[in-house]
Amino acid sequence: MQTLQVDLGERTYPIYIGSGLMARADLLAAHIVGRQVAIVTNETVAPLYLQALKQSLAGYSVTEVILPDGEAFKNWETLQLIFDGLLGARHDRRTTVIALGGGVIGDMAGFAAACYQRGVNFIQVPTTLLSQVDSSVGGKTGINHPLGKNMVGAFYQPQAVLIDTQSLTTLPARELSAGLAEVIKYGLICDEPFLTWLEENMQALLSLDQQALTTAIERSCAAKARIVAADERENGVRATLNLGHTFGHAIETEQGYGVWLHGEAVAAGTAMALEMSHRLGWITEAERNRGIRLLIAANLPVVPPKDMTPEHFLQHMAVDKKVLDGQLRLVLLRDLGDALVTSEFAHEILHATLGADYVALVNQLEN
Ligand code: NAD
Ligand code: GLY
């Protein structure tokens, strides 16, 4: 087992990474305060992992909250089901909420833990690659609003993140690729040598090689922990973790939550950020192509939806959380491995990026 740490003063917490960690009752017990535990999971993950986790919680009074599965359920109505479960079983302020599932479960269970009796103990047990490399670390929790993705929520750090890499063996291929979009993100924003490692190991990752997956998770979590420790509340460098997300969130909101997976929308958004960085003259054509090829190698979409016009994009991008005083800010690349957040770009270049012919670009890369 590998242990990393998110350094946040008195809210510092460990990230445990290893195979079979759900069976480690001792790791869980070290982060539970009272005798009550509520496991929040969903209809897909419960049959796979709920019993295994419960076995490690023998001796505690455990409430199961099993939510419907999907991004479309990341909303107020579903959040209310968590409070129904907690109050129905009379959970007190010393209860511990455990999120067992992907990013949707982690974001919702974390938000519920932040709100329930003004804040209770919270542990993340992420089971998708995306949640293991990104959403379970850093304390962003929340739900979607019909007008904007992740627009309602709280910063609320967990007591621990327990990553059992064995859970990835049941993950559908499409979800694995979605997670790789966020893994590639770390290479693009802050770790150029990691891009080379990913180019050399993409096939191993896609075939669920445990060694390769563990390396990718460790390297991604280390980057995220470093960035979160430097800027917990996203006043600066943390915003670079949103590479491709402003374009991607527009795709998710416009298409309807769950139609494109979050990681897929981020991949197409990242291709757009690469294209815009190239149009601004900050990265070369070869560097843009390198980034897009890596996304394609991970079986990710890099062409935005055909029916989305620049106007559709601009309408949704106007409610992005990085908008300050009405001014749109984007995460772009000064270089591969070097991201910045900026509003200093000509509107014509943004417009041209939104309307660029990504189908032709992919054809050119494939020939
Ligand atoms: P998800 O939670 O919807 O999980 C994807 C699918 O995989 C679901 O159907 C789920 O039930 C299923 N699943 C989960 N674990 C499984 C397993 N081990 N085996 C088989 N199936 C399994 O999606 P996700 O990609 O994990 O997370 C996306 C969400 O995370 C989005 O809502 C996004 O906004 C959020 N997010 C949050 C942060 C953050 O910092 N909080 C960062 C990135 C993404
Ligand atoms: N996923 C972006 C962040 O955690 O800041």
UniProtKB/TrEMBL annotation:
Pfam families: DHQ_synthase, DHQS_C. NAD(+) binds at residues 69-74, 103-107, 127-128, 140, 149. Pathway: Metabolic intermediate biosynthesis; chorismate biosynthesis; chorismate from D-erythrose 4-phosphate and phosphoenolpyruvate: step 2/7. It comes from the Bacteria. It catalyses: 7-phospho-2-dehydro-3-deoxy-D-arabino-heptonate = 3-dehydroquinate + phosphate. Keywords: Amino-acid biosynthesis, Aromatic amino acid biosynthesis, Cobalt, Cytoplasm, Lyase, Metal-binding, NAD, Nucleotide-binding, Zinc. One of its GO terms (biological process) is amino acid biosynthetic process. It is an enzyme of class 4 (lyase). Catalyzes the conversion of 3-deoxy-D-arabino-heptulosonate 7-phosphate (DAHP) to dehydroquinate (DHQ). Belongs to the sugar phosphate cyclases superfamily. Dehydroquinate synthase family. This is 3-dehydroquinate synthase. The lineage of its organism: Bacteria, Pseudomonadati, Pseudomonadota, Gammaproteobacteria, Pseudomonadales. The gene is aroB.
